[in-house]
Structures are given as C-alpha cells and as structure tokens.
From TrEMBL:
Residues 304-554 form the UvrD-like helicase C-terminal domain. InterPro entries: DExx_box_DNA_helicase_dom_sf (IPR013986), DNA_helicase_UvrD-like_C (IPR014017), DNA_helicase_UvrD/REP (IPR000212), HRDC-like_sf (IPR010997), HRDC_dom (IPR002121), HRDC_dom_sf (IPR044876), P-loop_NTPase (IPR027417), UvrD-like_ATP-bd (IPR014016). Its EC number is 5.6.2.4. Pfam families: HRDC, UvrD-helicase, UvrD_C. One of its GO terms (molecular function) is ATP hydrolysis activity. It is an enzyme of class 5 (isomerase). This is DNA 3'-5' helicase. It catalyses: Couples ATP hydrolysis with the unwinding of duplex DNA by translocating in the 3'-5' direction; ATP + H2O = ADP + phosphate + H(+). ATP binds at residues 44-51. Belongs to the helicase family. UvrD subfamily.
C-alpha cells in the first residue's frame, strides 16, 4: 500500500549535526529529508528546493548514522549538477558521497572491472560518433550530409537508450511514432553497420558504457557482490528523464533492493523524443507499493502571479495515470501580472522585446538576469539582430561549452603559465587583466556583435570571476585562481557571462532569471507541427511551455506575431496553449488529431490548392531520388508551407522542419510550386 511520509520531530538523542541539517527546511522538505529508509519518491515542483532537499536528506542520513557516506551513490544528468551536489554536501559537513552522472559512474566502475568482464583494459571510447556513422552510411550506399548524419546518430542513440536492437528497430520506431531521416529498414542497416564498426575497432560509445556495466552486474555475480556491497543507498535526480537503458543500470545496481530515493517532476517531462520514459517516475508507487511519497509544492522561485499562470497552464492538460499531480504554491511577495502581447510580424515582436530588455537594464536589472526563450534555435536570429540594434549584449545558450571555447582555452594556458612564475596575493585581478590583454582583449571596448563580441564576453567573464573570488577572499592569488578554473571546467560550471540570455526552451531547463520573455508562441511552432499527429506529443509541448514559464522569478512576458515578415498576411494563430491564459480568452477543446500517415490533411481554399501542388511535386521528387516521400518533406511540413505561402527563401527558411540542407536542395522548387 502506498504510504505518505509523515513529518516527524527530531528524535531525542539525535546528533546536533543532524538537528542542524533539518533546521531551516519547510515542513515537506523536512519530511523528505528525514525519510532515509526504504523506497522514497520526492515529487518536486519547479522552484521548490529540490537540490536543497536531497542534499539535506543525504546529510541527515550521514549525521544520524543511517548512511555511510562512501556507500551513497547519487546520480544526476549533468556534470554541473553532480558538482553542485558535492559542493552543497561539503557545506553540510559531508564528504565521501559519490555524486556522478550515470555515464561517469558507469565508466568508473567499468574501468575497474574491465579486465574481469572484458578480458582487458577499458576499450577506447568513440570520440567522433558522426565519423563512424558516416562510414556505416557509406557502406550502405547512402548519400548523406552533416545534417542527415546528425539525424542518423540521434536515431541510433534513441534506439540504444530504449534497448532497441537493429533487428527490432523498425517495429519499435513505428510504435513510437519516430520520423527517421531515412526509411526505418535503412536506418536499421546503418545501425547494424555502426555496431559492427565499433566491434571491429574494439571501441565503445557512451551508450555502451551503461549497457556493458549493467551486463557486468547482471552476468558476473562477483562483480555484482562487490558493487552492491560498496553502494547501498541510491539517489536519482531528474527521474522523469531516465530512459530504459539508465533504468536497467539502476536496477542492476540495486539488485532487488529498495533503498532508493528518486526525485522528479512529471510536469517537466520534455525529453521523451530522446528516449526518456516518464513512466518510471509515474509508475514508481506501483513498482514499490510501500514507497513513501513526498510532494514539494512550495515555490520559492517565482512570484504568486507567475505561479498562478503556470498552474493554470498545466491544469488544462489531461490527467495522467500514476502519482498524484503537483500544484505550486507561491511563497514570494506579490509581483507584476504576466503580460501578453500580439505583434504584426516577427521583426516587430523582436524589436519590442529588445526595447523592453533595454528598459529593464536601464532600470537596474542586470542583463544576465534577463532571458528570451523560444521553441526552436532558428528563431534566435531575429532577436540577435534586434538586441544588437538597441545596443543590448546577449549570450546564446546551448552553443559551445564555455571551457571548450578556443579563447577560453588559450586564456587558461596563459594564466597557468603566469601562475608558474608566482603571484603576489592581492594582485589577482590586475594580473588576470594583464594576461588577457596580451591576447588583444581590451576591457572597456566590447565589439559591436558577432563572434568578436562572444570572444570578448568570454574573457570578460574570467575577469568577473576573479573579482568575485577576491571579494570572498582578498588573499586569493593566481595559482589558486587557476586551480579554481580547473575545478569549474571539470564540473562544467561556467562563470556568468554578462548579457541577455537567448535560449531554446529545452536549453533553459534548470535555469532561472528575474525577467523572462517567452516568444514566438504560434501554433505550428508551439506546439511544433511535427507533434500534431500524436496527442501525447502535443502534451509534451505544453509541458515545454510550462518549463519556460517557470523559469521567471518576477517578470514574465509572453508574445506572438501574426505574420513572419512585414507585409505578409497576418494569419498565424497564437498557440492553443494560451487559450484560457490570455485575459478574456477561454480554454478550448483540443482540435481533432491528425493521424501521421493514414489521415489526409484537409486544407481549404488557396492553401488547399498549394498543399496539393506540393504533394504532387514531392511525389515526383521522391521518385526521382528513389526515396520515400516523407524523406523529402512530411505532410506536416507541406501543410506549414501551404498555410504560410512563403514568397522568399528567407520566409521559407523560418518554417519548422526546413533546415539548411533541404533549403538548398528544394528551396527554389518549393517557392516555384507555391507560386503556381
């Protein structure tokens, strides 16, 4: 029977350190932190102190003697999150806990057990998956470019994370509603060739790390005894994002035991397309009928106004089976009401957002506390231009990792060399400035835009970090600064770069800002057109908007534009998810769902004529290239083209589903077909 953990006072005789760990937690956090035995599920809504709760739970278990630190394994999805766990645990007086990503934990174990399991040292890892995929595609006589290779690599990753083999991939892909870059049988052949190439080279990819580690535990009793003897308590963060392969490894670690604490939010399930399976979280109580379930719903991040909008948005979703739902309770002081704006076209929308960002900065909001969030990365260009036009710096999130940027690597090498020569305490900031100046960086002269601006901002962030460290400890010298940079690089903990953040909604997960602009909210973009054939995919799009909304602490603006370009027909409908949220609107029933391959798209008038012309053109083009029709364009993309009636390559390039490769191959033909 499902049990709900009860809040309980600290028992008499509880060590003072344990008492201190629970102090300052709210009632629900305290309940979760003191539930240190048996299966535990913490449903943690956005902004409810999830990381605080799980670190205090581990610390409480250690201080009360329920946990031995070295026997706790906490797994996360990013190196930065793992580093954050370790830092917070150290602040609570707890060391020795293993906090790692799934892959890092698996690699550590497999490296140790490889001689026993594989008969030798850990094989090399595939560093460039695209190269191996390209070789496999060539062996199957496929003509590919970089875009299609990335799509193939993603499809192979999806297959491996969902435990699909090359033989059963076509059936599994069809059941999951996948839209592979080539027909499923062809992808299966490339997948098989890819696996053969790895075996021939004696290499493993990152998915193999998890699979082989799970195999080692499942098939080698001596390995299982040693690992399970070492790790007796497990914590899994972001459990809604666990895929079947990760769950298999977790099951192998547990070995039938139930001392596991999972933490997640069903409302933030947005990675199903990569193989993540929220059923692991939703079905946790079915799997462990005696599980303690604790709900964290007190939102300390956002104002009550933002919280109310988030609740209203997710409250319009159909109920889901499994664990109880979450409804956030705002804990902050009152703030401004979320704002909604309709614009004539995308440039007008971007210009309005850029002016609003400038006004916020002039009123005292740091640029780094402002974000512009969009559904697809292609939407960023118009906002980059608009922000540059009004002189507002910006940072693109989700690009190259900070510590992998060439200018940052060069700077760290120079700083390391300078540190080897010694450094005077108290002179850190001037020294860092001098070293960076040797690269041509000029502190008070940021370039206007483009790559030069990005480079300048990266180096400025290093100076800002030095300033922050000196403020904390005036004796910090250059060698300690270089060591600090190395620790941050290992944890992928990038310093704050001053500028308005431009990010996709997916890339924004886990982040927060004082002011957030959620833009481009039109049907066909959110929900994206490719999702319209499957109700469950549409609902994932709703959750994606929920994630975007809950990134805002104080100010939230949502906007859309009726046309893509100035002068175009203003016919784009705002996102269906805004119905019932925009003042004066009411929730509407979802439109009939189109079946992806069986039902026909029905368009009327001129759009219908264009759609039929596009279908005829697609059929001819596909036959000439000897490929299935959907490889050229899906029906959903043709519908988007027919409805938008693009008249230029620029208009066409902005539509979902039309990348650079297809624009180059088919752009002129499509425009000619649209014009008749």
């Amino acid at each position: 029977m499902l049990r709900t953990a009860d809040a309980r006072p600290v028992a008499p005789g509880t060590p003072a350190g344990a008492e201190a760990v629970l102090a300052g937690l709210d009632e629900e956090q305290r309940t979760a932190a003191s539930a240190v035995s048996g299966p535990v599920c913490i449903l943690a809504g956005a902004g409810t102190g999830k990381t605080r709760t799980i670190t205090h739970r581990i610390a409480y278990g250690v201080h009360t003697g329920a946990f031995v630190p070295e026997q706790v394994l906490a797994v996360t999805f990013t190196a930065r999150a793992a580093g954050e766990l370790r830092t917070r645990l150290a602040g609570l007086g707890v060391g020795g806990v293993q906090a790692r990503t799934f892959h890092a934990a698996a690699m550590r174990q497999l490296r140790y057990f490889a001689p026993r399991v594989l008969g030798g040292p850990l094989p090399p890892l595939v560093e460039n998956k695209l190269r191996v995929v390209a070789s496999a595609a060539t062996r199957n006589r496929l003509t590919t470019d970089r875009t299609s290779l990335r799509d193939l690599a993603s499809e192979i990753e999806w297959a491996k994370t969902t435990l699909a083999t090359p033989d059963d991939y076509p059936v599994r892909a069809a059941a999951a509603g996948r839209e592979p870059p080539f027909d499923a049988e062809t992808v299966a052949r490339v997948y098989a060739s890819y696996e053969s190439a790895k075996q021939r080279d004696g290499a493993l990819d990152f998915e193999d790390l998890l699979l082989v580690t799970a195999y080692a535990l499942e098939e080698h009793p001596d390995v299982a005894r040693q690992v399970r003897g070492q790790y007796r308590h497990f914590v899994v963060d972001e459990y809604q994002d666990v895929n079947p392969l990760q769950q298999r490894l977790l099951d192998a670690w547990l070995g039938g035991r139930a001392d596991v604490c999972v933490v997640g939010d069903p409302n933030q399930t947005i990675y199903s397309f990569t193989g993540a399976d929220p059923d692991h979280l939703l079905g946790f109580a079915d799997r462990y009928p005696d599980a303690a379930v604790v709900k964290l719903e007190r939102d300390y991040r956002s104002t009550p106004q933002v919280v109310a909008l988030a609740n209203k948005l997710i409250g319009q979703a159909p109920p889901r089976k499994g664990l109880p739902g979450l409804r956030l309770l705002g804990q902050r002081a009152e703030g401004p009401a979320p704002r909604f704006f309709e614009h004539a076209d995308e440039p007008a929308e971007a210009a309005a957002v850029a002016q609003a960002c400038r006004a916020l900065i002039e009123a005292g909001t740091p640029a780094s506390e402002i974000a512009v969030l969009f559904r697809i990365n292609a939407q960023s260009q118009v906002y980059e231009s608009a922000l540059a036009d009004v002189g507002v710096p910006y940072v693109l999130k989700g690009g190259e990792r900070f510590f992998e940027r060439p200018e940052v690597r060069e700077a760290i090498v120079l700083l390391r060399g300078a540190a080897a020569g010694g450094s005077d305490p108290g002179a850190l900031v001037p020294t860092v400035r001098d070293v960076l100046a040797s690269t041509g960086w000029v502190e008070h002269r940021p370039p206007a835009g483009g790559a030069a601006r990005d480079r300048w901002q990266s180096l400025a962030a290093l100076v800002d970090l030095a300033v922050d460290l000196v403020a904390e400890d005036p004796t910090t010298d250059l060698p300690r600064f270089v060591a600090h940079l190395a620790e941050r690089a290992d944890a992928q903990h990038a310093p704050t770069v001053q500028g308005v953040t431009l990010a996709s909604m997916h890339a924004a997960k886990g982040l927060e800002w004082d002011a957030v602009f959620v833009v481009g909210l039109v049907d066909g973009v959110l929900p994206i057109s490719q999702s319209l054939s499957r109700p469950e995919a549409v609902e994932e799009e709703r959750r994606l908007l929920y994630v975007a909304v809950t990134r805002a602490r104080e100010q939230l603006t949502l906007s859309w534009s009726l046309a893509r370009n100035p002068g175009a027909k203003r016919a784009r409908p705002r996102s269906r998810f805004l119905d019932g949220l925009v003042p004066g609107s009411t929730p509407t029933a979802p439109p009939p769902q189109r079946k992806a391959k069986k039902a026909k798209v029905v368009l009327e008038g001129e759009a219908g004529e264009i759609f039929e012309r596009l279908r005829a053109w697609r059929s001819t083009t596909a036959q000439a290239a000897s490929v299935p029709a959907y490889v050229v364009f899906s029906d959903a993309v043709l519908q988007a083209i027919a409805e938008a009636k693009p008249t230029s390559v620029r208009e066409l390039s902005g539509l979902p589903g039309i990348g650079a490769r297809k624009l180059e191959m088919y752009g002129e033909d499509v425009l000619a077909t649209v014009s008749g």
